[in-house]
Amino acid sequence: MRISKLVSLLCFSLLLGSAPMTSTQAQLFQPEENEVINPVRDVNQLIYRGKRADALALAEKEIENNPKNVQLRFIRGVILSDLKRNKEAKEAFEELIREYPEIAEPYNNLAVLYAGEGNLGRAKELLEQALSNNAKSFTTYNNLGDVYLALAAQSYGEALKLSPKSKNTKTKLETIRELISK
Q1: The dihedral formed by the CA atoms of 120, 126, 131 and 135, expressed in degrees to the nearest 10
Q2: C-alpha span between 110 and 23 (Å, rounded)
Q3: 21 DSSP assignment
């Protein structure tokens, strides 16, 4: 399902604009005298290089130093999700939602996790909650549309079990499956 790919896409979108590390930066992140320390950039560069465990360790260290860094806390949740540590990722996103209900991204990522587990009802609730809290974004609406499509596919699938000869329902289900696969 397209929704299950959103975590990876979101992580990738966070990396856009991140350049590969130079040899100077790669020296255990020891900044030159004039270099600005930027933990978010450093974590993103580790992710870009495929070093998610190192990125998580650095993010957690930096969050200890600055627990109000919302961006790093969000990225930590994304990394946990990428590492298939979904319980911890959910907790990270839920905490951000409690503290910052107006930010759409934690709702979206948490909804993606639930949708990936097949819990479309919870995913739908989260996305609708985001919209009601004015945490509106293109991604929220897009994810909600994907969840509605998946719910419709489930409903049509159940209807076909009751009436397998219904051509109209078969056509609807095929159309939705085609949309979901894109």
Answers
A1: -130
A2: 36
A3: P
Tokens found for residue 112: 């993606």
> For 124-179, what is each residue's pLDDT tens digit?
999 999 999 887 889 999 999 999 999 999 999 999 999 999 999 999 999 999 99
Query: Has this prediction a pTM greater than 0.85?
Result: no
Place of tokens 């260290």: 61
The domain locations on the chain are 2-181
E-only strand ranges, the chain = none
Q: How far apart are CA 112 and CA 136, in angstroms?
A: 16
Cα–Cα dist 97/151, whole Å: 24
Domain 2-181 has CATH 3.50.50.60: no
Q: Do the Cβ atoms of 68 and 39 come closer than 8 Å?
A: no
| Nearest Cα residue to 126 out of 146, 104, 142 | 104
Token pair, residue 88, equals: 């911890």
**Are 21 and 53 in contact, with CB atoms under 8 Å apart?**
no
